[in-house]
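Please check the following.

. . .
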Amino acid sequence: MQRDSTLAESPDPKHLAQPRRVAARALNQVDFWRGYALIAIFINHIPGIYFEQFTHRAFGLSDSAELFVFLAGFSLRYLSESRNENLVGMRLFMRLEARAFTIYAAQLVIVSLALAMMAGAAIYLDTPLILQWNNASAFFESPVQTQIGIVMLAHQMGYFDVLPLYIVMMAFAPLVVVLGRISLRILLFYSVSVWALTLLSELNLPTWPVEGVWFFNPFAWQLQFVLGYVLARPKQAAGFIEDKRMELRILGLVIVGIGLWLAMINWSPNPFELPEPRLFFMNDKTSLSPMRIVHMLGLVMLLGGLFDKATHWGPFRFLSVPLCLLGRNSLHVFCAGSLLSLAGQIVRFANPAGLVTDTLVLLIGVAAMLAIAWGNEWRINWPR
């Protein structure tokens, strides 16, 4: 059964490094958490929906974006160490760059569809205000310049600005793999250095024609991707660092507990009262501030490797099937989920807000995502 990731393709378990059963469990763990992240992203991209308070961003300092990027690096490590794939030299470069182009094409398609959905909703509801949502007004006011910006990834709509980050990271993924094969410490050193210099200088890519910067700063977010790559352990049962497992879980519990407390008191530092360099002390998503990285690593230390044990528990095993299905087909599901989130925004705008409307939006959206994932696997396996 073919698997994919928004960033790196996940090979079939039989193609992973030995031992096979160990690798298969670790891959399922990645699929499960990636499936959860896809649903959480769908919910969080509908501002004000009732169920956003139950996603993990409401209980800590990081959210599903960090999880998704971390898992992408995790998956790349599995792919790069697959004996069957034999990714070396030009084969490595072409395989990963082709994936980057696939993601680029997906970005252009979903942005075009999103603009058409907004235009159609504005006409049908007789509400031009919709054309100003999510930084889309530039396209309707200056379509020539903005279309160029969209193709160049210089213009990014709100809630449709994640894939440009992935495109950049996948374009540089061959470099990550090559440095990782030389030394994981060297790879991590360079990644941390680029991240730290980015926070010190506040370096970011500009947007155009609307003045601004990328919401997901690729110079900073590459560290989250590299952390997933470095911490993955394809040959270990949990797929993560096994040494001192209990000590890691206790440390993760402490970090997650502190994050929960800060979220409960709605802690948010005043950027004008922070010392320089201020990005090191802010909870800044754009530049991936240290506290967001630490919280994400705390979640990994606390929950990493528990998937195989938890599958013996009835409710968890029931949930693992659909979530793994979503995770195995993440690029298709992510694109569909982005458009479904926009549809949810439109539905909530056009109808009385309330729990009933929000529940219908959630159920229909998740059902559609599952149907798309199932349909993609059926398409792949149909000749068999």
Remarks:
- DSSP finds 15 helices and two strands in the chain.
